[in-house]
Amino acid sequence: MPRRGLRCRKHRSGLWEVRPYIRYPDGRKVRQSFYGRTCEEALKKAQEAVVKARMGLLPMRDSRTFQGFAEEWLERKAGGLSAKTLANYRRELGYWFPYLGPMRLQEVKPLDIRRALDELTKQGIGPRSLKKALEHLRAVFKEALALEIVHRDPTAAIRLNLPSRPKAGRALEPEEAEALLRAFDAWPTWEVGMALRLCLALGLREGEALGLKWGDVDLEGGTLTIRRAWTALGGKGLLTEPKTASSRRTLPVPAATLERLKARWEYLLSLGGTPLELKEAWVFPGRDPSRPLNPHSLAHALRKITARLGIPHLRVHDLRHSYGSFLLANGAPLELVSERMGHANPSITLNVYRHLLGHERQAWVVDPEDLLSRPRPKA
């Protein structure tokens, strides 16, 4: 039952709303809305706010806008983020600015957020981007709540109904992989063809392949080490740290791929380069040899190759995915696959390749009758 003086009504958003007057210590009386999925939930929030106001525990009026505080929050986060991740955060958080930006932080209500989400959906913003944008919005209000700038989190009542996550990219059939490797080797630009080969033959991320220097390649030991990545950002390339600590890894290079790297090394030496100079050179230089290839070069070449071979559309990342699939299909332990792929932990590998592991589980069937029929060892 509603408490005296508090009336609960169904809001057009589908939530229940209670609008009590809140008295602040400075004498101001302000009517505020509190929402809940049930009438009782909304009433509880409103009653708690009334009590806190009487005790002087509610935040005083703050003139900061949502956009102003969100940008402050982003600056505080910037130190622990890579340049590419920071750019993504800025873009995703910026989706809210046209709708919530000028509003005072304390005035943002669940309905404002719901309307903004509806508009962003109409604009064609994808489910994954909306999910990330809402995560950042929640983080902003979580900090505002912790700093006692707001007395409630308007994102708490927001639910984002997203389609189920699509499966990982298509893994190649062995015949397709064989045809692609031949096409990579025949590609007119060695740098592009070889970078694509490394993505398929070693499971490298595109940026990891492009970030290789000759000093990262141990031609005698037959390994290469991932120390950096060259990624796309704003139409240009950006040198970054590996994605995670686990992404820094040393990998064995398959014999056929190693022979091609050795041949290229010998060719570069024949042009007059010294081993010391070449160690600092990019394995896959672009037109400007001081910078790696444009990150979009590989996708452009892969589109042409798959079209010519009649292979359904592939992303460069699907080459990496195929490598992981081949390992698991050939009985490699999950932990080993996780290490080779540079995943932060095996649970990520499990989530990505769950469909393959499901088939594997079905093959492991133990019939108790078989156990009973086996001869027992003699004592």
From TrEMBL:
<feature type="domain" description="Tyr recombinase">
    <location>
        <begin position="167"/>
        <end position="367"/>
    </location>
</feature>
<dbReference type="InterPro" id="IPR002104">
    <property type="entry name" value="Integrase_catalytic"/>
</dbReference>
<dbReference type="InterPro" id="IPR011010">
    <property type="entry name" value="DNA_brk_join_enz"/>
</dbReference>
<dbReference type="Pfam" id="PF22022">
    <property type="entry name" value="Phage_int_M"/>
</dbReference>
<dbReference type="Pfam" id="PF00589">
    <property type="entry name" value="Phage_integrase"/>
</dbReference>
<protein>
    <submittedName>
        <fullName>Site-specific integrase</fullName>
    </submittedName>
</protein>
<keyword id="KW-0238">DNA-binding</keyword>
<dbReference type="GO" id="GO:0015074">
    <property type="term" value="P:DNA integration"/>
</dbReference>
<comment type="similarity">
    <text>Belongs to the 'phage' integrase family.</text>
</comment>
<dbReference type="InterPro" id="IPR010998">
    <property type="entry name" value="Integrase_recombinase_N"/>
</dbReference>
<dbReference type="InterPro" id="IPR044068">
    <property type="entry name" value="CB"/>
</dbReference>
<dbReference type="InterPro" id="IPR053876">
    <property type="entry name" value="Phage_int_M"/>
</dbReference>
<dbReference type="GO" id="GO:0003677">
    <property type="term" value="F:DNA binding"/>
</dbReference>
<keyword id="KW-0229">DNA integration</keyword>
<keyword id="KW-0233">DNA recombination</keyword>
<dbReference type="InterPro" id="IPR013762">
    <property type="entry name" value="Integrase-like_cat_sf"/>
</dbReference>
<dbReference type="GO" id="GO:0006310">
    <property type="term" value="P:DNA recombination"/>
</dbReference>
<dbReference type="InterPro" id="IPR050808">
    <property type="entry name" value="Phage_Integrase"/>
</dbReference>
<feature type="domain" description="Core-binding (CB)">
    <location>
        <begin position="64"/>
        <end position="145"/>
    </location>
</feature>
